[in-house]
Amino acid sequence: MGSRRRTPYGPGNPGASLTVHPLEGCRGIRAAGEVGLATHTIWEGVLEQAVREGEDVYYLELSEVTFVDVAGAGALAAAAGRLGAGRRLVVRRPPPALRRTLEAFWPGLPAIEVTM
After folding, report:
1. Where does the STAS domain lie (predicted)?
2. If you average pLDDT over residues 85-113, what whole number do you get?
3. 73 FRET partner, CA 20 to 30 A, in 1, 48, 66, 98?
């Protein structure tokens, strides 16, 4: 995977980027950077892959993600809604604002598990 995109605009850092690598030992990805206007294509690709892979649990390690905008949170919730019964996304160590956004707009969404 190893996708990276830099652009001169975005909601956070002017050089916003999102780097994504596969997790070792379990199905999922480790991301670093920001999810915003400049990186939505990468983020949506990650989420589409999670939906397609068909695993019961898909991990999103976000401890190195500093920002996720509302559209990124919405894309996460939409992807969770496309998962089949009994499947879930486990979001590990997300930025605090993402956790709060999910709780505010998509409370109790059973297909997303947030772990700290």
Report:
1. 16-103
2. 94
3. 1
